[in-house]
Amino acid sequence: MVSGDWWTNPHLDNNECVCVEVTDPSQPLNYVDGQRVDPKCTQTFDLREPATGKSLRYVASSNEEDVDRAVRSARREFKAWKKFSGFERGNVLKKAANIIRMRSEELARTEVLDTGKPIYEARMDIAGCADTVDYYGGMAAGISGEFLQLSNGNFNYTIREPLGVVGGIGAWNYPFQMATWKSSPALACGNTFVFKPSPLTPLTAVMLGEIYKEAGLPDGCYNVIQGEGDTGQLLGNHPDVNKMTFTGSVPTGSKVMEACAKGIKHVGLELGGKSPCIIFNDSNLDNAVSGTGIHDSLLDNAVSGAMMANFFTQGQVCSNGTRVFVQNSIMGPFLAKLVERTKNMKIGNPNHEDTKVGATISEEQAKKVLTYVDIAKKEGASVLCGGERVVPEDSLSGGYYMSPCILVNCEDHMTVVKDEIFGSVMSVLGFDTEPEVISRANDTEFGLAAGVFTNDLKRAHRVASELEAGSLYVNNYNVYPVGVPFGGYKKSGLGRENGPEALDLFTQVKSVYVEMGDVEAPF
Ligand SMILES: NC(=O)c1ccc[n+]([C@@H]2O[C@H](COP(=O)([O-])OP(=O)(O)OC[C@H]3O[C@@H](n4cnc5c(N)ncnc54)[C@H](O)[C@@H]3O)[C@@H](O)[C@H]2O)c1
């Protein structure tokens, strides 16, 4: 629990925030059999606060024995949990959703501590997570098979059964979201779960374990092991894990898939992206501004959309539309509004209410992002604004802050336009025609998301159907209402999270044939 009520005072300096249990090194962050446990592993890793760069605590890693202990706990409890009715499992999840809502401020503050994202965003994240857990709580009672009438009174029915023990591995940009998006559909279907969060953001996954327990989840159904890549590898290779659900980069996803291939395990992959956000000039509209032919509100919406497609969580969002294609005839007014609004985003202490840009996750990631800006300049792009390290105030001088960057004069072949940067760097590219932009938008190995801004209804649906991506946005970007499936085409992933699709992916079908007559054997 968080001590005191520091979160109610937006003027408190982040250094004064004390999340006692999660930052106290004597409190273990592994969670097995319904309690925090000390791992056997003697290795630790340093957890740093992105907002200040200061060490929060050392976190104990998990070795083979620790991973095995968590998987055995999940295996043991699977036998009982799968026998609960869907309705009973759903009730546990719905209670957990309510506890998440009651503890939302504490969870949001811990997420800020771990990720450096601004508090307004962390609150949105936690509210969305509660909704997801609630959603799967509601869906659990409806998980069922089908009945098929056959000839002579014979029939067949199917049962949707859980897979067994599911292993989850998360990235660092949405830590609580990854723990909830993966565990709640898995648990709803009757699986048990072992989760390894990113070593950069280990804090809230263990809080979720305590919330599930309070909601009535039997001990052993949800477990957390902390660690780096080698711990993730041990989990993926464990013979008693039946499915891996992974979020992270393409190279690591490929390794996880390889481990699953060896063990013939189910695998779900949520990987990287380099998504397009396409902004058309609907020139036949009234209320044209400054002779450009674009409707004022469409322009405002398009600028808002481009910013939402790039600047949440310091640009560290897998679905970001970092290639912003703007029809050339509206480039001038679009850029003017975009730059004005981007410069107005307040960069600062992520715990402050008015902060819109917090800290990048780590020094390494911040340096990587700034290096990409340098490469872009060398390859001929121009910086319209941002792309620099920022020190918002003296007390945050060790934090990893940078100003959101807008690049123009970009070309499709440039490194910055091809690579996933995972930081606040938007590349703006001009285009003239619809076929041209569709072809350029699809010219990528990724296919996670895409956006199209237009007031032409037919064009919107035509373009949406042509774009090779798993999540399409028409006249908005990066919105994730509960129940909407999410996941990638091409190298952006396999399978879907969220929505009813996830339930199919956490179950397997057992088919039962029933003979009502005599056996007519040809022998
Ligand atoms: N599609 C999505 O839903 C989604 C969401 C968020 C982030 N991402 C992607 O995640 C990436 C950024 O996250 P990251 O830097 O944490 O990714 P990463 O691939 O470096 O690490 C992800 C996780 O895998 C673990 N890991 C590392 N090596 C492993 C191995 N050999 N076997 C098993 N696990 C291993 C890490 O410890 C971490 O928990 C970006 O590419 C981003 O696009 C995708």
TrEMBL record:
Domain Aldehyde dehydrogenase: 42-512
Keyword Iron applies: no
Pfam families documented for this protein: Aldedh
PROSITE patterns reported for this sequence: ALDEHYDE_DEHYDR_CYS, ALDEHYDE_DEHYDR_GLU
One of the record's GO molecular function terms: aldehyde dehydrogenase (NAD+) activity
Name of the top EC class for this enzyme: oxidoreductase
Alphabetically ordered keywords of this record: Oxidoreductase
Residue numbers annotated as active site: 270
Matching InterPro entries: Ald_DH/histidinol_DH (IPR016161), Ald_DH_C (IPR016163), Ald_DH_CS_CYS (IPR016160), Ald_DH_CS_GLU (IPR029510), Ald_DH_N (IPR016162), Aldehyde_DH_dom (IPR015590)
Superkingdom in the source lineage: Eukaryota
E.C. designation(s): 1.2.1.3, 1.2.1.47
NCBIfam families: PRK13252.1 (NF009725)
Protein family (similarity comment): Belongs to the aldehyde dehydrogenase family.
Name this polypeptide is given: ALDH9A1
Originating organism: Mytilus coruscus (Sea mussel)
